[in-house]
Write the structure tokens for this entry.
Amino acid sequence: MNRIITLTTDFGLGDGYVAAVKGTLLALAPDAQLVDITHEIAPQNVHDAAFVLANAIPYFPMDAVHLIVVDPGVGSVRRTLAARTARATYVAADNGVLTLVWRHEPPLEIVSLTEPRFWRAGQISHTFHGRDIMGPVAAHLANGVPLSDLGPSITDPVTLDMAEPVEMPDGQLRGEIIYVDRFGNLISNIPADRVSDPIYVDIENRRLPLSRHYAEVPTGKPVALIGSHGYLEIAVREGNANKRLRLGRGAPVVISANRQAEAG
């Protein structure tokens, strides 16, 4: 079966870890089409992986298999999972990395991966379940093995405490930065459908009007806009908002009706 298998990991590309996982996948599912979402998640950063994954997978064809190996608990008693939604199948550690996916694609079935016959043959490493357990399971799923064969059904997967914006009695909407991309853009948890123009955006003693694109402000100036991912973000035109504003994940963002907005 020429099925898509995507990979999202924190392995980087300087070592052979990604190649080992891909080799395992191709040995079991030689016709699979392997697609890298990213291997540059910060080490053990499950929150970042959850955001990146949720914003990439809607653009893939239906029925892809998504393998996620960001697994700070590898070798511990944490479970490994396979899950099916209406549009895709997922294989990951039970650490909440699928939290944001499941907000838009509720799981129809989740199983704990307990059947060794679907793992890599031979000794299983305590530190590389991506190669020895999750990778082989993803390949078997791509080959048509049903979830029910992989282990018992579960109903209590781990979920992350991912903050959502809160509407205040005075009409303000309070959110926070949840992700910083490689350009230094500060991406909030406020979705586009909660933002109406005109508004102003307050972040760390700066007040910014809502702009349509980066070039609406001079080079080097901060700007608030709806990014391509569909969330309110704070950027610096041709610069790095993370470094310029010295802010990161968890920084508060407040939007209000625009009365006296002026760029900071």
